[in-house]
Predict the 3D structure of the following.
Amino acid sequence: MRTPLFYLVLLAFAVLSLLWSLPAGLLYRVMPARAGQTLGQRAIMTGFRLYLWLMRVTGMLRVDLSALDTLRGAGALVIAPSHPSLLDAVLVISRLPRVVCIAKAGVWDNPLLGGGVRLAGYIRNDATRAMVRRAAEEVRAGRQLLIFPEGTRTRRPPLGPCSRSFAVMARMAGAPVQTVVIESDSPYLRPGWPLWRRPPLPLVYRVRLGRRFQPAGSAQALSDAIEAHLREELSRDGRAVPGGGPAPVPVAAAPVHAQPAA
């Protein structure tokens, strides 16, 4: 029974995305930028929350995201999670109404997502200087920036090397970096696993807050410190995931062409 439900939930996500992307693309052209971004960010949060609710009620997903709720009133932040799968952005954004996300440029031309990301004021990743400058401006304006320090999904668990760009953004904005530790024992949507391929179910995720780092010192030093912290948290023994069971076992990633982070 779970196989048909898996594809029905995927279909529901596609339909919801399309139904929002079309009007959002029109609203992007007529609404004031800030009002449109507020509406767009809340709409994406709501849509992602509904998608995760469908996954939960159908028994496809087990996860507790309550730790993320404490960030709602935390003010401007750079949110820096570990990145085992493409589902990570959905998990984080579903709980936070003021998030600006850095997304790969191809999303802007995607009929399911393009209108929504334009209205929400998300940031393209195809021009590094403009990306860094725009991200810092959004954080200074009070938004929360979601960026994955690795720049792509983890290829060699527990963590890949972290880029310096997220630390440059934090220093330019004068905002702290909140680390988020995301763990899963599932191979779903890791590098080499396509969206439509059914994984073993249920998917089990653990999401918790790590340390919060002030933007002091050089960008490289900040990046190195955050990478060391995330690597230590992800490498700890004895961690449990929601629903019981042992700590997540890293899943070997299949070879795949490099993809920007979602």
Summary: The helical segments are 2-30, 33-57, 66-69, 87-93, 114-120, 128-140, 165-173, 219-235. Residues 28 and 119 are 5 Å apart (CA to CA). The first helix runs from residue 2 to 30.
